[in-house]
Amino acid sequence: MIKNVLVLGAGSAGLLAAISIKRKIPQLAVRVVRSPDIGVIGVGEGTTPNFPRHLFDYLNISKRRFYELAQPVWKIGIRFIWGPRGRFDYGFGHQLDSRWVDLPRPNGFYCDDDCTGTDLPTALMARGKVFPRQAQVPAPDVQGWHGFHIENRKLVEVLELVARSVGVDFVDGKVSGATRGGEGGVTAVHLEDGQTLAADFFIDASGFRSELLGKAMGEPYLPFDKTLFCDRAVVGGWDRGPDEPIMPYTTAETMDAGWAWQIEHEHFVNRGYVFCSGAISDDDARAEFERKNPKAAKGGRVVKFRSGRYQRAWVDNVVAIGNSGGFVEPLEATSLMVVCSQCETLVDFLLHTGLSPTPTMRRLYNELVADVWDEIRDFLGLHYKLNTLLDTPFWRQCRAETDISAIGRLLEFYEENGPTGFSRHLLRSTANNFGIEGFLVMLVGNKAPYRGRHTATDAERAVWEGHRRAFAEQAQNGMDVRESLACVRRPEWRWFGE
Known about the structure:
Layout: E1 4-8, H1 12-24, E2 29-34, E3 44-46, H2 50-58, H3 63-70, E4 73-75, E5 77-81, E6 88-91, H4 120-126, E7 147-151, H5 152-165, E8 169-172, E9 175-180, E10 186-191, E11 196-198, E12 201-204, H6 211-216, E13 221-223, E14 232-239, E15 250-255, E16 258-264, E17 268-275, H7 282-292, E18 301-304, E19 308-310, E20 314-315, E21 318-320, E22 326-327, H8 335-352, H9 359-386, H10 393-401, H11 408-417, H12 435-445, H13 458-476, H14 481-488
Parallel strand pairs: 1-2, 1-12, 2-8, 5-15, 12-21
Antiparallel strand pairs: 3-7, 4-7, 5-6, 9-10, 10-11, 13-19, 14-17, 14-18, 15-16, 16-17, 19-22, 20-21
Helix pairs in contact: 1-5, 1-8, 2-8, 4-13, 8-9, 9-12
């Protein structure tokens, strides 16, 4: 039976794992190794809606306290400067996996010419607004379909405070190695100062170093390089000017050899260029980034990464959480999404087995995690395969060579039947935040052709446009990020449930 848990790494993944385990299984002793060589990446992060749900609903962290200390701003979707339309929005609502009762077909069949404003989140995005305005008071109606833009260092500082408050202990030291027992699992982690930290169960949250799963356990690594060609990023940004609006979405903009993110913080704009080193040199990528972002400081740092996952995330008594188990570029802000999902699943499995996990439970966990990573790989690959905005050598290679064969049946179904939610039954996993909605947005947003088309009658078209106008009117009266932040920071503001 597990009694002691050691978490290796005090970044966001390690702290979320430690808090989740201690909060839900308080009888366990949980320690976190805070090692200076396991650094915090320190860039802005975007999240999906499961992240605030994990914080506030699952972990019961105070919203007021979190907003005060972490200072997040809201994100209600992603704006893609991408594909034949030039741009399209992917909101965190149900813009395409939905059908009005007064129309015969799902929304996607009415989006051939224009796919903007098909639900409230995308109508708000189109107008730079984040939430609808409450009817009775001048305040935002904060909806559940939001994620965050958040500075990683602030997030880690807040999570450490929360971890200490729930009884997680911390040990400072640089990791020098690990000892494996006769049955194959890890028995202890060693620090350079001579400390030996024994435990029954280990969480490897050591980031790309993968100290336990990759190094100590020697688990095979499965690269995603047949589908995702990018392997580096130029990271930069600038201080937000007084006249720069805070947009309620992440921007993903097509670049010559990859794409650039823009993450909106209250006082800083975080910008980065994800690129393929086989298509462009570091210096040329930095030059393109600076040319297209003149406000950014010169000489942005280049971060190297590899996309892929380890064959298993849970081996013996070691579970990898976060980048130590898998990583993909931040095109859909999947990092914290996967961490939260893994933490909840792991806690459920530990509780169900009475803290004595069985081999079949570990096997099921590994299958679930692998399916999540592989479906994210295929989802991101679809972004690259469909993007026709630029005709550079890199993008020609993406359209010709990106391997998305694993979703071949889904694409075949779409080509024959169009943007219908029935295609959800062809997905590998239900454990990610995208579901069939994400795939439909990519296919419709990029005008992927299909044969089972629907010619709307004039009456249908009038009904469809009426729904869009209603969303537009509600969104036009909505509140932007600055207005909404001012409201929730007032002393009299009360979060629901607190």
